[in-house]
Amino acid sequence: MRGRMITAPVVSPGPFPTFAFLGRCKGCKGIVRVMVEQVEKTRVSLGYGRTEARIRYRLPNGAIETDHGGMGRIFASCLCGNHVEFRRIRGTLSEKPCGAACRNAKGPACVCACAGKNHGAGFSVS
Asked: Model pTM?
């Protein structure tokens, strides 16, 4: 089985959640926030007892992208056409009020009262 990848059955069948991803384009220097729908989650055997998560997301344009390793990272095209790395927004609930700094954030980590719901919303794309 050396060097052979085996895909396990879907881990969580049924309706999948929607997640926000934030990316920064190196070409146009723009920040883009997209909402993507998770369409599949599997575990892949890498051999020698090791496994890796594979999560597939449907982008707003209908394309399917894969997050290898379940690290919260996908690659897609920016509005200008350049290739961009998008990171999943990770929110942590805190007492800090949500404000303009959160809505206009450029990074994927959020620590405020919205727990990521409004993070980077100033750069949203439908």
From this structure: 0.76
